[in-house]
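Subject: mismatched residue count in predicted assembly?

I count 396 residues in my input, but I want to confirm that the predicted structure covers every chain. Input:
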Amino acid sequence: MPGFKGLAVPGPTNMPFRIRQAMDVALEDHRAPDFPAFTLPLFADLKRIFQTTTGQVFIFPGSGTGGWESAIANTLSPGDTVLASVFGQFSLLWVDLCQRFGLKVDAIDVEWGKGVPLDLYRARLEADKTHAIKAVLVTQNETATGVTSNVAGVRRILDDLKHPALLFVDGVSSIASIDFRMDEWGVDVAVAGSQKGFMLPTGLAIVCVSEKALQAGKTATLPRCFFDYQDMIKANAQGYFPYTPAATLLRGLRASIDMLTEEGLPNVFARHHRLAGAVRAAVDAWGLRMCAQGPEWFSDTVTAVVVPDGFDANDVIKTAYNRYDLSLGTGLNKVAGKVFRIGHLGWLNEIMVLQALGGVELAMRDVGIKFEPGSGTGAAVRHLSQSGEAMRIAAE
Ligand SMILES: *Cc1c(COP(=O)(O)O)cnc(C)c1O
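Triage response: the counts match. Full output below for your records.
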């Protein structure tokens, strides 16, 4: 079909031309004498995206999953207890990884559509007088259900109880799109990937690690090799890597950090919030429900839309792809067939959101879901023009 393909999945996201061009370079010598002049400022500037001055950033060839593994393998010992909660496919897979590493995981089952249960985390941590729990896991943005959790709230609980557990955050679909504060929230390992908020191809696990987590690693005994933080620290200090880095992606990452910094992180977060509001207004106007069960959980990077009873969400997804070249996110695991997901993060503006919503309307009509055509796109236009006006007034 002529025209652009629409990519409205929550990762990989749309890649800016500027990033593509930054990566259109000859392969380079990663042991060249001038390589550190490129990498050392890259590490320093990347820290700003995590909103940290004290954290240490690491860039591994890999994906978000590798970032999860690095957090666990570098800081914990076999048999250690980890507190986690499961409310979607990604929080589930992180728990699975911990179990495969021989950890004892207290995984609290939460209804899909809600997020980290602060009250239950508090109860578990309060009861843990011997401090058996070594790490607490938080999936900041559950991409499978479109649910954002309160990381600062978990920090507050740990501080209130003076519990020394490490705080690990999966920020793969939030960091660089939704506010994330490494230092202020006392996060010990934050995990991101290249193909979501960073607007790059898949291929990098980007993590940020606190001094406390690096200290814990000195006595922790889980085996680690590829993801060893200490090997990275040694080589990175000189501007090099312990093995071949994905240098082409690092060139793209340079452009990504520049773009995020030029726009300004607060503006990046505000843009995501405003565009997400348009998607939510559309879902409301269609008379449909979101998987996220209330505003406290609404995600500014992805919305999972529940199809009415009697419909299969996969039919909407297939129709959108086959007839309109629009990719929507599928329902994963428990919500398969029940939801389709609209990704709204990364390099995105008003008309790209309207294009996705228009495509959803076409596909939903084709499969026979009842709603007023144009109701969702109309509500989105109203939301965008009102919130755009408010932004213009605020800027004056
Ligand atoms: C995409 C994603 C992951 C997995 O990342 P990969 O890059 O696919 O390994 C983990 N957690 C969340 C929240 C994600 O959105």
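The pocket of pyridoxal-5'-phosphate is lined by residues 11, 63-65, 90, 139, 141, 143, 170, 172-173, 193, 202 (CB under 6 Å). Marking this ticket as 'not a bug'.
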